[in-house]
Design brief:
Layout lengths: L1 H56 L2
């Protein structure tokens, strides 16, 4: 009976670790998506600013 209890505890620990890894992976992916989107917006705004300067300068 004691061995069965130990097996259950070990299995629960494994499941908890798996859950935490998956949760962390999902969080990391979300942060990377947000960061990538921010970089795109930042690049676009820099490009627009450069085009405005070029147009104002008559280039």
């Amino acid at each position: 009976m004691q061995r069965a209890e130990t097996n259950v505890e070990e299995r629960l620990d494994m499941l908890e670790q798996t859950h935490h890894r998956r949760r962390q992976r999902a969080i990391t992916e979300e942060v990377l998506d947000i960061t990538a989107g921010f970089e795109v917006l930042r690049t676009d705004s820099r490009r627009e600013a450069a085009e405005t300067v070029s147009e104002d300068a008559g280039w």
